[in-house]
Amino acid sequence: MKKIAIFASGTxxxxxxxxxxxxxxxLPVTVSLLVCDHEDAQVLQRAAELKVPIFVINFKAYPNxxxxxxxxxxxxxxxxxxxxxxxxxxxxxxxxxLGAYTxxxxxxxxxxxxxxxxxxxxxxxxxxxxxxxxxxxxxxDAAVDSxxxxxxxAVPILAEDTLATLxxxxxxxxxxxxxxxxxxxxxxxxx
Length: 191
Ligand code: GAR
Known about the structure:
The chain is of the alpha/beta class.
């Protein structure tokens, strides 16, 4: 059974969608660890409910990013994790983690990359007045929201949309696309 970790900083709806899809679809993979960089994030409660082990990392407790990422690496090794899924993890992955998990870290972004990278992908697309935005799943590299794209799904922005209704449709799309990509990569032996 393949062991993965999910990294999240906030609400954790993608964490839940991934974890439940793995259980319901009987995918040959276990979510062995949730790594979270905020001690009061809502995702922690969700992980407890789903009985996923948790590692909370306080970056301020380490002299630098490399040391903090080494502490994460130690936990990943202990849990025998072979791949990482970022799901609303609002931190740039540094060389320590990237070097240890080359081509084994995926991210989901709430826009059609390379358009609207960064922390506010949905709002930026909405304010730009584009007619179509969407969701991207990609491998990560050293830059923000870059790296080879694995899958994208377009989401139209309707005339009657508010930011809230668009956000809801984007999240719904994320919750379908991310588990589908995971299932596909596992099937192909690419993760
Ligand atoms: C998701 O929309 C994800 O695409 C986004 O954070 C949200 C987390 O929601 N990630 C980024 O913007 C990365 N640049 P969740 O905590 O409910 O899964």
